Amino acid sequence: MVKVDPNGRIILPQEIRDHLGLTPGTEVEIHKEDGKAVIEPADNPEEIIERMEELVEETSSEHGERSPLEDSTDPIAQKHRDAVRRGANNDG
């Protein structure tokens, strides 16, 4: 059992932190869902970009196409990367 301190803080048990990959400095999102507090790691924009690039590469190679990410000047790929980065900078 965990207690809330006078400042509203709690310490998550190590097992939960390990399971969620929470390390010191990890940002989390907390919201209410069905009457419960839900804690989730915040999205890392660089991880989102990496995953997006992996998916584009996989899809392109499955269809025998050249990936737009192979050409760093591809305007659509660059537009998506920039949008993700802008969104991350506006949140932080």
TrEMBL record:
Disordered, as annotated region: 55-92
Residues of the SpoVT-AbrB domain: 1-44
GO molecular function: DNA binding
Highest taxon in the source lineage: Archaea
Keyword DNA-binding found: yes
This protein's record includes keyword DNA-binding: yes
InterPro entries named in the record: SpoVT-AbrB_dom, SpoVT-AbrB_sf
Keywords: DNA-binding
Biased composition (Basic and acidic residues): 55-69
SMART domains recorded: SpoVT_AbrB
A family per Pfam: MazE_antitoxin
Identification of the protein by name: AbrB/MazE/SpoVT family DNA-binding domain-containing protein
Origin species: Haloplanus ruber
